Amino acid sequence: MARTLTILQINDLHGYIEPHAEIVRQGAEVEFRTLGGLSRIAALYRRVRSETGGAVLALDNGDTFHGTYVAVQSKGRALAPMMNALALDAMTVHWEFAYGPKGFKELAATLDYPVLAINIFDKVTGELVFAPYRIVERAGLKIGVIGLACPIVDKTMPPAFSEGIRFTLGREELPGWIDRVRQTEHVDLVVVLSHLGFPQDVKLAREVNGIDVLVSGHTHNRMHEPVVENGAIIFQSGCHGSFIGRLDVTVEDGKVSDYRHRLIPVDAELGQDEEMQALVEAAVRPHRALLTEVVGRTRVPLHRYAMLRTAMDDLLLDAIAAAAGVEIAFSNGWRYGAPIPPGPITVNDLWNIIPTNSPVSTVDLTGAEIATMLEENFERTFAADPYEQMGGYVKRCRGLNVYLKAENPRGHRIDRLFAEGAPIEPERLYRCAFVTTQGVPVKFGRNRTNLDMRAVDALRAWLADNVVGDDPPRRSVMAV
User: Fold this and answer.
1) Cα–Cα dist 44/246, whole Å
2) Are 303 and 73 in contact (CB under 8 A)?
3) Kind of pairing, strands 414-419 and 133-138?
4) Which of 105, 388, 428, 471, by CA, is between 20 and 30 Å from 39?
5) Distance, CA of 415 to CA of 419 (rounded, Å)
6) Does position 312 have pLDDT exceeding 90, yes or no?
7) Would you give the end-to-end CA distance of the chain in angstroms?
8) What tens digit of pLDDT does each residue of 382-425 get?
9) CA distance 412 to 372
10) Which residues pair with 7 in a beta bridge?
């Protein structure tokens, strides 16, 4: 007998609980639309559950409880009642570890649904930190949901994120767990809930048999159509809650016989769930006056939807370089941070740019170290093997001109490199500013110093004297 199940996906929410500006591309045109908001998402979920008679599996790929002022100031706790109200069935994790393993375990204990991960282990006991899978019975089907957390937490992120735990890719563990849910639990459908990233998920599905649906996250792919690899239907739905992915699968005799996918924009046409809106407003109200304060202006759109450089990161780099009194600055190639249209910039926007609000730091780097650091970053971004891709976009740079050949092999992607307008000198020391150890990893440089200023204050100070877009950027990473 054929049965139909609807899978609803939210991935990489990054703490965006209210509608916000979002970029939508239509051919050559780029326009800003107001998308997102948990009250709209809750209204959509309620409607879909009503339409399907409750035959819905609701999944969250993680990067949920970190990324905005409200999320970070409450260490994710402010969002827990809202996510519980969505009646999710499971989630997996990544940036949630910004609160440390202990902090996230405490947060997870407040959720009505499990955190799933087959690839996070206690360093002492070797035991799994979270449940590996959950069995859900829905639409007359028995479904095995297996979780894969982001594996880079203990490799590229601050050490406090992974204290006492270790992460694997999950490739070696996954076949055994698929066998377990099929042979022991006798499921009708195997769903892998992953935060590896789309390139990694495609390779994983190609190598591992037995996956029916792979719900993907981490890389913020706004997929209008799923990809089918080795029988696995793979889909991902953007970021910031701007879109929800819906996959309707028909299962017959233990196999998917048909499917239909939709990428649903979270716009005003969805309506609003009043109970969810009350939760959102209660969380934001104490901070509303602070967050709506206008602190600057931009003449150009600010966003992070480009691989090599973006105006949003140019602003951050200018601010930290000015605070440190240097020309060269680095920050991580983050993907999160909702776009800011031309016009006013608010305190809320600043926290969205850098929710960690890290100290502005300085370090002395040799020219050779700068080149090596960039080559390592390019490898993690452009590695031919998706499993070796470990991060967001290219590291953001100020005061450098980097001519990049992304197609070149490891260690040979820099074609030419200039610092402060002159060819870089390998032995020379360059005083540089940065934010977070993702900006300049701890193994590089000497004389590391945290200034008595954090990133948000540096942004406010720069914006008090400057308008974004008046001057050309003082850095560039260019593909040649």
Assistant:
1) 11
2) no
3) unpaired
4) 105
5) 14
6) yes
7) 56
8) 999 999 998 789 999 999 999 999 999 999 999 999 998 899 99
9) 10
10) 57, 247
